[in-house]
Amino acid sequence: MNFPYNLSGLRNLDLNYFEEIFELTKYFKKLIVEKKTIKEELRSRSVINLFFENSTRTLTSFELAEKMMGMNTVSFTSGGSSMSKGESLLDTIRNIDAMNFDYTVIRHSTPGIPLLLQKFTDSKIINAGDGRNEHPTQGLLDIFTLKEIYGDIKGLNVCIMGDISHSRVALSNIYGLKKYDVNVSVCGPVSFIPRDIEGLGVNVFHDPEEAVRKNDVLNVLRVQLERDAGYLIPSLNEYNRHYGLDERVLRSNKSIKILHPGPMNINVEIDYNLTVSENSYIFQQVTNGLAVKCAIFKLMNDNKN
Question: What is the pTM of this model?
Fold first, then answer.
């Protein structure tokens, strides 16, 4: 199968492409962990990381993956650009397109921007997060991590806990995990659970102890204060008291696995001790994210359309 020209989300990505990505991810991860040189197969390619929102893990891992693959890399942030002088987003995109980049990695606070970008450039687009819509590379690395842990994940019980209403990570995980027949649920206060979420085939918990007891995996999300999520709860201390994960909450299921896309707000959604416990696969996720991005660049480069 010819891998898609663009990666805008997981909702419409065929399961066969997931498997292609994961097979190649295994190869790249082995090289990364063993600190072996990755063949610079994309030496003649150029990429711009077009980030209109702050990022640590996503931007850094994209930059490192690009350099490992031998690409010419430029990173753009809107704060130091001509947009601060009044240039429109469309004009910025047109000017960047005139430089003929082979790839554009885009993060923006508005849902649908990666799809809009496809209308104004021939560059291959990778969505690094668009508003509350999707974050496909995060969804892929989360699923890959689960496959590393369990092998076959069909029938696995995975609960996404926290600020679901503002989370693009939640949606990409739901879309991706459902393709593998995983039993997906969400947990959080009523104000953090979208009213129509059950229409995506997920169950809803409001009691974190019940969610822990009935699931194999918790994918924990932070409260997204930058998207005004703080107005939906009395306080972060109150959220921590009712929904913060600590060793006490995990007593009913001591074998549960814990994921977190980061950044973590320690002592808000999760206790520090859990992040470094045997239950945690959080830092393994970061390594997997680097390998996933190498795999995606390689597969998209092989698309000759």
Answer: 0.94
